[in-house]
């Protein structure tokens, strides 16, 4: 297919893993499994230059697991403070979760039914026990940065211009990845039908915050996605 000048799209499939999918995932996102056919259709889009899947890939002692904290911390309810291991003055509060996506366990595998044939690369994140890392690019610490996946450099090396983000969960890893992709200078779309939030009631607010950060939340049937199939230009 003739490529359209100025349009080199990448698809980021975020954390489409068994632990995030009902009915058995330990951190099941409501209706999370429903996005798999939508993502498979996107993976087949002929103009995509890059198709990357990420996995949340935690050690058993990861800081985000409520059970790793003293004082009977409650998953979904309590938070903990993450401290930059190289700089005790830089901290952030993060939500605690049930044990999920422990490296090499069945729950950490890519979700059954996700089409692996067209995935160019699988990128693991959240591998450092000391920090929470929602974004596929880096953790939120900056002085200095603790983990950088190299994704921004990889996308730039491939001359990517537009980044389409799907997967789970919309209000955590999809959101952080999309915001960081925008800050890295890409045109960024979250495909609404290709993602689901943990907090369904707060998705409207989260969506507004994404738009305020310069990320567009678009429909799978809209012109931005049709463009991936070489159809409508926008
Ligand atoms: C995620 C909570 C904890 C996500 C990862 O992939 O959105 N959410 N770890
Ligand atoms: Zn996680």
UniProtKB/TrEMBL annotation:
EC identifiers of the protein: 3.5.1.19
Pfam families this protein is in?
Isochorismatase
| Record pathway | Cofactor biosynthesis; nicotinate biosynthesis; nicotinate from nicotinamide: step 1/1
Which residue positions does the secretion signal occupy?
A: none
Domain Isochorismatase-like as annotated: residue spans: 10-218
Taxonomy, superkingdom: Eukaryota
Q: Which CDD domains does the entry link to?
A: nicotinamidase
The molecular function terms in GO held by this entry are:
metal ion binding; nicotinamidase activity
* One BP annotation, GO: pyridine nucleotide biosynthetic process
Among Gene3D superfamilies, the record links this protein to: Isochorismatase-like (3.40.50.850)
Going by the UniProt record, its keywords in alphabetical order are:
Hydrolase, Metal-binding, Pyridine nucleotide biosynthesis
Question: What top-level class of enzyme does the UniProt entry assign?
Answer: hydrolase
Stated family: Belongs to the isochorismatase family.
What protein name applies here? nicotinamidase
Source organism (scientific name) = Lasiosphaeria miniovina
